[in-house]
């Protein structure tokens, strides 16, 4: 689609070779428009995290292409060169594993601020404290290292680091899976606010409740391929594929809600 911010066309990713080859992603196509949230949902092993890495330029597909605007994300062998690198950021499933354990939350974000802009150390620290504050991380907690923070706080630091680049799109891979229900709600409300500010979000999750809350379009993934896609509300209310129906039926409390309706 010519107006898409990011578009994947018939993307394939295979790991291994010969009899041990595993097709993690099979002929997948999708698009993300400016200012919208899409969901990629499926069980563990469905290929959704691999696809997220493809969109972020961290995994090169064996076949197919990913476009940013109307150009391939790969130029001279590297993904998102120059200014494009700033515009696409990723938040990983494990916030602890993606943060440097030796430095504080403030230093983590300040490093990113200085990398993406010409700022002095003091100015980067000031901007980082403001950004962390917007994410709900206090100045006191900003001085802590990852192991001293809760899972929700670490994920907020990860989001702050990604947003320090002022991206156009945020690719979030299972961002709520490692945090408790309260922190999940806070993070989703934060994402909702970012969408209101014009950010695009690709949300990868096995949690259909999270997908339904945040996204306006959804892609359902099984065994590396999309089995269904469409407007989130329509897919949830009238699923067409047996796998989608199975996923929706497994949402906690769904039958109880239906019985009380």
Automatic annotation (TrEMBL):
An MF annotation (GO) of this entry: ATP hydrolysis activity
GO annotation (BP), single: transmembrane transport
CDD domains named among the record's database cross-references: ABC_NikE_OppD_transporters
SUPFAM superfamilies the UniProt entry points to: P-loop containing nucleoside triphosphate hydrolases
Annotated PROSITE patterns: ABC_TRANSPORTER_1, ABC_TRANSPORTER_2
Domain ABC transporter residue range list: 6-248
Stretches assigned to coiled coil: none
NAD recorded as keyword: no
Keyword Cell membrane: no
Family to which this protein belongs: Belongs to the ABC transporter superfamily.
Protein name: Unannotated protein
Species of the source: freshwater metagenome
């Amino acid at each position: 689609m010519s107006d898409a911010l990011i578009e994947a066309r018939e993307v394939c990713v295979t790991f291994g070779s010969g009899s041990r080859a595993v097709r993690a992603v099979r002929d997948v196509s999708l698009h993300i428009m400016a200012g919208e949230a899409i969901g990629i949902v499926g069980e563990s092993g469905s290929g959704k995290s691999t696809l997220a890495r493809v969109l972020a330029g961290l995994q090169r597909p064996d076949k197919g292409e990913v476009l940013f605007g109307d150009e391939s994300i790969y130029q001279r062998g590297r993904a998102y060169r120059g200014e494009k690198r700033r515009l696409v950021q990723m938040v990983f499933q494990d916030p602890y594993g993606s943060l440097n354990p030796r430095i504080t939350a403030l230093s983590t974000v300040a490093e990113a601020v200085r990398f993406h802009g010409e700022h002095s150390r003091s100015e980067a620290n000031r901007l980082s404290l403001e950004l962390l504050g917007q994410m709900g991380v206090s100045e006191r907690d900003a001085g802590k290292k990852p192991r001293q923070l809760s899972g929700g706080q670490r994920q907020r630091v990860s989001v702050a680091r990604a947003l320090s680049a002022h991206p156009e799109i945020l690719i979030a891979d299972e961002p709520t899976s490692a945090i408790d229900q309260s922190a999940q709600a806070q993070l989703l409300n934060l994402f909702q606010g970012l969408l209101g500010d014009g950010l695009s979000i690709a949300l990868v999750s096995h949690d259909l409740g999270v997908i339904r809350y945040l996204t306006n379009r959804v892609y359902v993934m099984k065994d590396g391929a999309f089995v269904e896609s469409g407007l989130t509300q329509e897919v949830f209310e009238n699923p067409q594929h047996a796998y989608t129906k199975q996923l929706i039926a497994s949402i906690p409390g769904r039958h109880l809600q239906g019985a009380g309706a």
